[in-house]
Amino acid sequence: MTDELELRSARLLGLAEYTALFNAAYEGYLIPFHLDENTTAAMIEAFDLDADASRIAFRDGGAVGLGNLGVRGDDAWIGGVGVVTAARRTGVGEALMRALHEQGRERGIRRVWLEVIVENTGAFALYEKLGYRTLRDVEVWSLSAAEDDEPTALKVPAAEAHEKVRERRTEREPWQRADASLAHYDDARGLVTDEGAAVYRQLGENVQLLQIAGDAEPLLRRLRSLGPVSILNLPDDDPAATAFRSLGATVVVRQHEMLLEL
Questions:
Q1: Gyration radius of the chain's alpha carbons
Q2: Cys-Cys with 50: which of 13, 15, 71, 182 at CB 3.0–4.6 Å?
């Protein structure tokens, strides 16, 4: 029962405890993943997760769920709400969501954003119940590595490429790839052509594409020569999605991007 819950600030948990709870709360998730402490710390910083505004759900003294809230000015983002297996379907998720909304109101937040996997119909129904509306569908893409036969994209400083992206972008970037997220990456790199630009990170053998605008295909050809390329939450009608598709990329997951106006 939700009236047995105690919802407290996420700052009560250290990084190790927080990471362990996050992994337990997402056990059996539709898209399997596992965080280590370094990844958790990087996520907190890049996405501006606010420990004071985020909430941990306790029952009988034990942590049974967590809700993360990223905060940027008038906007907030639900950076993951999860419940441990034994406590699911008991109202914990809804209680956490409502607590995050209350924290947002206390901070003057006007808009709360989130993404939900299309197949996660239970969570989608909860978000609609809470007043969220779907704005667009976004996709996570994966493009395998391949040689670039006719490289035309030039490597440049990330700031130079980012400025060109800002001039040419036609879609609002999702939270994870927004300009405020890019500001946290001191390892970002840039590519430009006469007709487009991209900002990316080289993480070992993998390329994490952060932003792209303009003619995407030559940029993607150059990027995949550096290693397998992935991008989070590209709008399904973004011109870059057509370029990914033409190069044989695959959609890993589709999500609804939703908004609640407080």
A1: 19
A2: 71
Helical H runs in 15-155?
15-25, 37-46, 92-106, 121-129
Q: Please give the model's pTM, rounded to 2 decimal places.
A: 0.95
3-state secondary structure (DSSP) of residue 86: helix
**H-only helix segments in 150-238:** 158-168, 179-182, 216-224
| pLDDT value of residue 1 | 44
Query: Could you say which residues of the chain have pLDDT below 70?
Result: 1-3
Where do we find the tokens 């954003």?
113
Residue 186: other Cβ atoms inside 10 A: 6
Separation CA 215–CA 195 (nearest Å): 6
> Percent of the chain scored above 90 by pLDDT?
95
**Can you give the pLDDT at residue 3?**
56
CATH topology of domain 2-109: Aminopeptidase (3.40.630)
Tokens of 245: 């598709």
pLDDT digits (tens, 9 = 90+) for 90-129: 999 999 999 999 999 999 999 999 999 999 999 999 999 9
The CATH number, out of the four listed (3.40.50.2000, 3.40.630.30, 3.30.565.10, 1.20.1250.20), of the domain defined by the range 140-256: 3.40.630.30
Distance CA(6)–CA(95), nearest Å, equals 10
Burial class (CB in 10 A: 0-12, 13-18, 19+), 5: buried
